[in-house]
Design goal:
This protein folds into 3 domains: about 90 residues, Sandwich (Immunoglobulin-like), CATH 2.60.40.10; about 110 residues, no CATH class; about 130 residues, Glutaredoxin (3-Layer(aba) Sandwich). It is about 40% helix and about 25% strand. The protein contains 10 helices and 15 strands. The strands form 4 sheets. A 5-stranded mixed beta sheet has the order 13-12-11-14-15, covered by helices on one side. Strand 12, helix 8 and strand 13 form a beta-alpha-beta unit. Helix 2 packs parallel to helix 4, helix 5 crosses helix 6 and helix 7 packs parallel to helix 10. The protein starts with a helix and ends with a helix.
Length: about 375
């Protein structure tokens, strides 16, 4: 009787997979003769490798305490998976496929990751078309770079908006698995901070063993006090003449806190628009506080003069180590926070026409 039960257990184990590990059975086609191995990464860490046999097949067996992100690296190709114990996964790929397509069975979440990669590929192809059109126009009219960029900006933004909507739709439909989390990280956090914070709140207790999710949730919680509707934290820095300036000195006015630097090309490109809005609204209860991430005082002062930045400027000349940068969790510039007269954050990272439209509505 015991032998019968043991035999049945072995049959079930073979059929259902080992509950204490996952298995990847892979097969490649059209491989270059120099490709001998496949590498398995967990997150960004190399955890295993396998030689290809004479039929270009490979196998991995590993154990994981919870569902985790993995990637198979084959030459310059990278295939993303989400794997957990008990799964027996069949993977195949044609290395000459120009789209990098592949097939996967036995892992539902990895299948969803593949579906999202197809969304990525669709909008990525459109971005490539726009880039190709830009290069073609530049070849014909190299002196008209600015006008060519402006003409294509609408196409680019339309595609970006459509991609972001597709990402949000996919992520919200997959909150119960890691494919949704994988997708939400494709969004630009500058423009979709509110949506990403809401997502973090929704999944914070769903994947306790996943380090990437835990870090994302913690980071979003860190940013929450700096989100719209919260009071901006006070700080004090020196202006170019050595005078101490506090953020709270500007209470009673609408204030744009503008993080920038003389070496930041996008910042310098945006400065004419900021100057225009300042000149238009400076007599309507609006002003600006520029916070520079420079570490060279001469370059900072020259940029202020060259760009005609006639509002208050401050810096501790510590670049990314500035205490204001740390306080406001600034990870890229230009970055801005628009405060109401009570010092409450009412908008973030408004640039171009978005800044003009918002100020027109408020002021």
């Amino acid at each position: 009787m015991n032998k019968i039960l043991l035999g049945l257990s072995l049959i079930l184990l073979i059929a259902c997979g080992n509950p204490d590990q996952f298995v990847i059975n892979g097969k490649l086609s059209n491989i270059h003769k120099d490709i001998k191995k496949v590498f398995l990464y967990e997150g960004g860490e190399l955890v295993d490798s396998a030689f290809l046999n004479e039929d270009a097949e490979f196998r991995f067996k590993r154990s994981t305490p919870s569902a985790q992100f993995y990637s198979l690296m084959v030459s310059d190709r990278n295939y993303f998976l989400v794997l957990q114990n008990g799964e027996k996964v069949d993977f195949s790929a044609n290395l000459e496929d120009p789209k990098g397509d592949y097939q996967i069975e036995g892992s539902a979440t990895s299948g969803k990751i593949k579906a999202f990669s197809e969304i990525n590929a669709h909008y990525g192809a459109i971005f490539k078309e726009i880039e190709g059109e830009f290069q073609m126009q530049m070849a014909k009219r190299p002196a008209d770079e600015d006008s060519i960029r402006k003409a294509l900006l609408g196409k680019y933004q339309t595609n970006m908006d459509a991609f972001s909507k597709a990402v949000l739709d996919f992520a919200n439909k997959n909150k119960d698995n890691l494919a949704g989390f994988y997708a939400i990280n494709s969004l630009d956090p500058t423009n979709y901070e509110r949506e990403m914070m809401a997502y973090a709140e929704a999944i914070k207790d769903k994947f306790p063993g996943n380090q990437a999710v835990n870090e994302f949730v913690a980071h979003m919680a860190e940013l929450k006090p700096l989100s719209i509707g919260h009071k901006a934290p006070d700080f004090e820095l020196m202006d170019p003449k050595g005078k101490t300036v506090k953020l709270s000195d500007f209470r009673g006015k609408y204030l744009l806190v503008d993080f920038w630097a003389s070496w930041c090309v996008p910042c310098r490109e945006e400065n004419p628009n900021v100057v225009e809005q300042y000149q238009h609204y400076k007599d309507k209860n609006f002003t600006i506080l520029g916070v520079s991430l420079d570490n060279d005082q001469a370059a900072w002062i020259k940029a202020i003069q060259d760009d005609h930045l006639d509002w208050t400027q401050v810096s501790d000349l510590q670049a990314w180590n500035s205490k204001a940068v740390e306080l406001y969790k600034v990870s890229a510039i230009p970055a801005s926070f628009l405060l109401d007269p009570d010092g409450v954050i009412i908008a973030k990272n408004l640039r171009g026409t978005a800044l003009a439209d918002f100020l027109k509505e408020k002021l």
